[in-house]
Queue: 4 jobs
Job 1
Amino acid sequence: MVSQLEIQLGVVGAYLVVALAVGLLAYRLTSRDAEDYYLAGRSVGTVVLLFTTFATLLSAFTFFGGPDLAFRAGPEWILVMGVMDGVLFAILWYVVGYKQWLVGKAHGYVTLGEMLGDRFGSKRLRALVAGLSLFWLFPYVMLQQMGAGEAIVGLTNGIVPYWAGAAGITVFMIVYVVIAGLRGVAWTDTLQGLFMLGVVWLAVGWVATAAGGPSALSNALATNKPEFLALGGGLYSPQFIISSAVTIAFGVAMFPQINQRFFVAKSGAVLKRSFALWPVLVVLLFVPAFILGTWAAGLGISVPEGANVLPVLLNEYTPVWFAALVVAGAMAAMMSSSDSMLLSGSSYFTRDLYRPFVNPSATDAREAWIARIGVALFATLTFVASLFRPGTLVEVGDTAFGGFAQMALPVIVALYWAKTTRSGMFAGILGGQVFYLAHVFIPAVEVGSMTVFGATYLTWDYALWGMVLSAVLTVGVSALTVAAPEENQHRFTEGLRAD
């Protein structure tokens, strides 16, 4: 007789095989030039662009971190991710993404660093953007591996250890990225996005039925967690919600795997349709994910150390095979983020660091091999770091979001203000990063009743203040300095027109 463990691992394994088959098909159709490997030849249509962005962004942070947060502190986080960031990022998709698409189409850019380095005539700025992006990408890749390890622990009730789940997804994503390129990643993301949406809504219906229906779940929540039924009854203040929504949305716009998707659309119309539909998809995934975490709190689910609430809840209220199917959907979310992150990270490394500083005359074939070696090394290092569990999924993800957010306003200023100078860009990017890193790594300092150095200032999160500082420095220093002769002050406007 087939054991429960065999069913669980068989379902997850079968899904991985299907995803790998899609990647192999894409490999056969992908040419070996860099633009096709990294950007799928700038030929992506509306459905694929929408779902590859959706599946790439909505990762372990969503599938496991979200329900865990709702389970511990209430469902209001849905206001941050499901509503506010759905709308805010859609706006940024137009403000940053459309402009970037026009510039990239006109000049053939592949990375954000390439675009900024050319605009300001600076290899050092190009390297700074790439280096910071890889630095903040590290914890977010690690988050996916942590999520995989915790998912397998929860699904198998600890029979399969944390390290095995993390190692499994690490090996898979290395193999997948090495062979697939963006075309394979985008195709698989579309499959994974549809799969994620389907299984999470099925999970809501199944748990609701098994637990006695919506009224029984509401009564259980009113008995065990009555504060979760009132807005503001959890642990969130308006300042926390707004600060989190802003830093996450702006951080997402600078994520390498998201930012690079601003270059890949087949046309401007594709880009516009995609960001218009974005808020709908976000709500469709976040609402059921947070509902499940909130219901678990009301039902009194006991979550083992090192596990996530979602697989534990499903093991309790749904059949073994279905719980495994939903975890496979969560693994899909993690893989669709990890493969895109590793692919984009490799392009940042090879095009913005390796080519300009190490081997400017490298052939495309050599660049491709360097990229693949970089993928394997980067994923291995993040796996080792994930074994130390430096925080919860939400804490690790939030730290990465804030780091990327510090680059957003200088980039937006550069895209829209022709008088932005190289000195202003260095001041804005470095100033915001130094301020933010100091708050990440240095404990809060209190002097009497006053916070001199802490997590908030005037009740607003330090990440938001770092963003304000980056914008002020970019504009202020640019206003006080003169562009160098090699800076292309009109690079973003010459020859560009609305599509």
Note: The first helix runs from residue 4 to 29.
Job 2
Amino acid sequence: MAPRKLYVGTKLRELRTRIGLTQKAFAAKLGISLPYLNQMENNNRPVSTSVVLAMASEFGFDVTELSTGDAERMVTDMSEILSDPIFAEIAPPLADLRLAASNAPALSRAFIELHRAYRQTHERLASLDEVLGQEATNLQPSPWEEVRDFFHYCDNYIDAVDRAAELFASTVDGDILRAGNLKFELQFTDSKNLRRYDPVSNALRLAASALPSTQRFQLLHQIALLEQNELLEATLDLARFQTDAARHIAKIGLANYFAGAALMPYAKFLQAAQSTRHDLEQLADQFGASIEQVAHRLSTLQRPGAKGIPFFFVRVDQAGTITKRHSATRLQFARFGGPCPLWNVHRAFETPGRFLRQLAETPDGVRYISIARDVSKPGGSFTAPTRRYAIALGCEMTHASALVYADDLLPASPQAFEPIGISCRICPRRDCHQRSVPPLESKLSVDHDQRGTLPYTVE
């Protein structure tokens, strides 16, 4: 594929404003004319290589911050929203969406939030589960969605929390479950609760039946709540959540983030990931973590100046519902419907305990390698239910040589890449044998005298 031109006018303006320079002074520092800078800041011209190098040398700017990840995520979200039938006659072209995401990101986010409010209201009215005259707070995003989007647009990397966890990990000598300098009493019980802290006795009780990786994670989660509370609250203040419920849920997410980052400290884990070529089982053994914890941590390695491979990570239940999702790649997950059934993550339930590999290509022509595995979680007794999930971790093929899972798949013929999409409602593929609903933005033709793969033809 031809390299995509980089339009980052918003980030250029942010850098100039941050260092307190006028356009004229900034242009002089970069060695370019004032009109040229003005054109780049307004996204009338792409940023040039010489300007990127000048930004790095003159201001120490981390060029990895010029990633178009946020803009691509918003373009994907807006494309899916505009497949709604209410936009059938007025949906703008993809080029306009890219301009909006690059030039007016705040407006693009507002549009996404507005459609979310419309969708929620429509669903509530259709199901008659709300009464007329209920408070207008119903138009707000659900707390879970608000928190999900917070991590989504932070690239799933929270720098202050990550560095605090890394610093804490440097003070732990050996296994955290056997550390002698904990500020509370650690107990193991037969309780069904994974974790329970009693502030009166200053005792933390963990389930004895839980796996050691789960016990370590829950212990570090409680340490985050007790010893890093000020940092967590400051981060929540910056996020400006709309509801108390969202803030409380986000605090759990931040404590989980701290736990994963302390269990797998950034620099040490990044080095190990590179040396093992991202072998999830080796990394799990080395850091005393679970396969899911390792896969999730790999998707967070986006520290400026020390980024790992940009991965996507997703967890689904047996119904195909996405329960965790993040993407540092151009691949984005469906926000308003089910994921593509052709992803290998859905087949992982059929082969428990095994990694499934998949070469895939999305409608935009980008190719990926993906690995999937079930991560079912036993309940701890014969009568307790088992929670069944599957995870997928993947990256673009340009990084495949750094993955042990790709060794015997390279080089691969074009026919080896399975065509996948984001969700049926926005996928443009015309002859997909797994299509569940027709694409909303396309016209259909029905011929009663013939039948192909589908009972209709997508025009």
Note: The chain is about 40% helix and 10% strand.
Job 3
Amino acid sequence: MPKLISPQVEFSGLLSQMKAATPEVFSPDGKVLNLMEGRWQEAGTPREFVSPIDGSELGVMPMLNRETALRAVEFAKAEASTWAATDLDERKRRVQDCLNQLREQVELTAKLIMWEIGKTYKLGFTDIDRAIEGVQWYIDNIEGMLGQRKPLGLVSNIASWNYPMSVLLHAVLVQVLAGNSVIAKTPTDGGFISLSLTFAIARRCGLPVTLVSGSGGELSDVLVKHDAIDCLSFVGGRYNGRNIADALSSVHKRYMLEMEGVNTYGIWDYSDWNGLADQLKKGYDYGKQRCTAYVRFVVERRLFPQFLETYWEAIRNLKVGNPTLVDAPNDPLPDLAFGPVINATQAQELDRLYANALKTGATPIYEGKLDESLFLPGQDRSAYRAPRALVNLPRQSELYFKEPFGPIDSIVLVDRVEELVGEMNISNGALVAAVASDDQKWAARTAKEVRAFKVGINKLRSRGDREEVFGGLGESWKGAFVGGALLVEAVTEGDKPILGNFAEALLLPERI
């Protein structure tokens, strides 16, 4: 019997639930609106949005032009002074009310995220759950972190699509808790429906939040450079990040620019292959569409046979398929390693990078295949790609210096420790890295030579939650670091220096 879409995640049913929960988000003809000037309005220019899961149309994004977005920015700025004067206890009460209402919509939010950006239910649930529990930690600890610090004013948020809740919504609610008003742009590649649900709840609770949709090229001037913007939080690619950094160099405003880098895992004098296998499987969460995904393995040459055997056994059993499918209506949702990449365009870009690597001399060592039984017969599978891996990636290959942001791994073999360190630092800075060795003292010493903000010893590192700080070195990050107390400090003014990666200085926290 062919599989079927689980009734619990059928999209039309989810949309009906959202309309019942937040009817103000929708126009009379059922289109999602923008949240600006304190209310849901402005359908903008409709842009068709399809799900990466099966190519089905989910709705239309309400794309705004520059002039309309400017109205949104000016209103959001006008809200800043009143909100900054609001007593901290009242701000805490309203953010807590928002979290309480968000908890009632966790299931719905997670299932909308599945359809919008192709996450499995488990990862969709984790995204919204981490956002809520992370902000709860800030509510419980805000007095000690805030002290006598004062809010900056209006904070603008431009984030990538991969973590709409645990990165974007989380940052927004902490920024508001610290006394700022906020404007956020919905990621163009996905997340506008689930974000509209959560922002509607935040606005109902009296929080000064604005949510707009539009192309980066159209809205960049007003969301980045406009005088009304007091701080910019950006998560995205290095190309756009560099352009924004250049644009901000002549204006003195606070910014946090999280960009990509090649996150590497170095292996030297190592024997815990079962432990590595578990890390390899974990590393494929969401098809490596994460800023902290490890995509380059730098391996001591003599260990390559054991590494290859471990890699094959770990990766060949990963299940990649449609995350909404079940065998019977009451069955639980499938336990998959990952589903589609964000869209067919990104899948084609992965193919191009892979083909370029082969053409320039790389050797393929693994090419996974999709399991027909994990899809509906005849469904659109243009956004699905199984894992692939290459060894001996040459420097003339485009992939050598670039994060693929998808399920392609590359392995570089080295003969000397100096080579290992050099290859691990190939992208001039990264967010995370790891060094694996039976000699932990050697690993800890070598880790200090790796240009990554966080370096794991025999383990993966991640963005982290609550008190854990986050940033990047080199070209992977510009501006203030975030996470823990640093996130509050990044969006407030006080007598304490802001820690971060600035053009004039690198100011690191004592513990990472």
Note: The first strand starts at residue 4 and ends at 5.
Job 4
Amino acid sequence: MNLIEELRWRGMLQDTMPGTEEQLQKEMTTAYIGFDPTASSLHIGNLATIMLLVHLQRAGHKPVALVGGATGMIGDPSGKSAERNLLSEEVLRDNQNGIKKQLEKFLHFGDAPNAAEVVNNYDWFKEFSFLDFLRNVGKHLTVNYMMKKDSVKKRITAQEGEDGAEGLSFTEFSYQLLQGYDYMHLYKHKNVRLQMGGSDQWGNITSGTELIRRMEGGKAYALTTPLVTKADGSKFGKSESGNVWLDPTMTSPYKFYQFWLNVADDEAENLIKRFTLLTQEEIAALVEEHAQAPHLRVLQKALAKEVTTTVHSAEDYEQAVEASQILFGKGDLETLRGLPESTLLAVFEGVPQIEISKENLANGAQAVDFLSEITQNQIFESKGEAKKMIQNGGVSINRQKVGKPDENITSDLLQGKYLVVQKGKKNYYLVKAV
């Protein structure tokens, strides 16, 4: 597999330094990407660069993931208008451990020659004094050279206060020198010859290749991938509630699946190329099938299946599919019982939620009372209205049709506390008994 050709047809190739393709074809090459540990989980915006490492390893090369325990204490100014909050070493170390576990789902670790490896730049920066760094590293890059980088120029030329922009601190200005030294250290100690990243990292990466040339007289290479954006040019990777995380405790598998299922038609082809390992022929067939019947969302379903299965599991994917059918009137009581509480709450996020006392159900409350008075008349405004819809077969509780107004409500609560009420075809209520 030719890595450059693979990335090119997938739309994953932005810039390469001259000689990069020749280096990759010549021998097994060790390449690295840096990951920011300022959150305890990676998010789907990180998937674009994770997939670079996946394809690199599939092509027979060795991937190294650098977790920036040291640089994460400072913050990269690229693409940002303000300086980030600084985190403690303890928090950063916990975050790094979580990130490594997530990377293990994508990359093969072990004893093979091209087995993946995780490194932490705190390990070589922690004993590096400020004076030693200035004397041994800082002297090799001029301020003029560093000022030409886009990430620096944009922050310096921006007016403070304009669109929330702040001036560039010396801390952030030094970031490219620190990242450049990362590359130099890995070049020297891990035989790394290529750094990859998002297109906004080109300046930082090339600072590293320049530092290697000046300090070691060596030749190193650079490769970037386009930033993933929506069709309107806005940033990809956020839902209405914020980042879509890879950690299931931060974004449930159901919400994760729904995010991919709901991408726009004009984005789906690009995303399925970038975020799955489906072949060119398989994707071409899906694109053609989708074009014949866009309403069936063939591309989105294939994309959601592949990514959810990889990040979570096949079981989580199947459960997400079942859960997604519930609001369309599909699925029975057993389906509801099988949903974890986080998924149940995610499915019914946005529907009216009503809290009642468990005591109201303990003695076998009648359906007509439960649907009106006990639930504070939030489902039906009166017993008469509730009675009429029950008699017309329009009410279900936990997917069980309520047959008679005086029928006793079950105390068999989902997760020991929930009842799902459906009024008509589309109106849902989640009742929590506490």
Note: Residues 347-433 form a domain with the Structural Genomics Hypothetical 15.5 Kd Protein In mrcA-pckA Intergenic Region; Chain A fold (CATH 3.10.290.10).
